[in-house]
Amino acid sequence: TLNQMIISAYLNEHDWKGQITKYNDLYRSRRDAMLEALAKYLPAGVTHTRPEGGFFVWLTLPEGIDTYALLQQGVKAGVIFIPGAAFSPSGQADNKLRLAFCSVDEKTIDEGVQRLSGLLKNEISKL
Q: What CATH fold (topology level) applies to the domain 27-125?
């Protein structure tokens, strides 16, 4: 079909393997920047995953912090995340959140993690 011919021509004429390597390097750099910022700024009591693939880091906050409520504060502070309950059919992941690192540069990641950490410190102090 026409679609198959277009894809075949692209694969024959472009360095798609090099493009994959380029993006792997870019995303690894951004992931590492996020992990470094999390290690530097996160308050005690907050843990996070270390992804070996994908585009997201998951944070687990102390019990009693509702990440849906925290999201509104995040929007006001200029930092966005996805509440973990959005990924749970039972809505039981209230104290978890997902951070994306693939679409922003390292400087922005550092700034975002600093802002988020300030919000988290404030919420933890209320427990």
A: Aspartate Aminotransferase, domain 1 (3.90.1150)
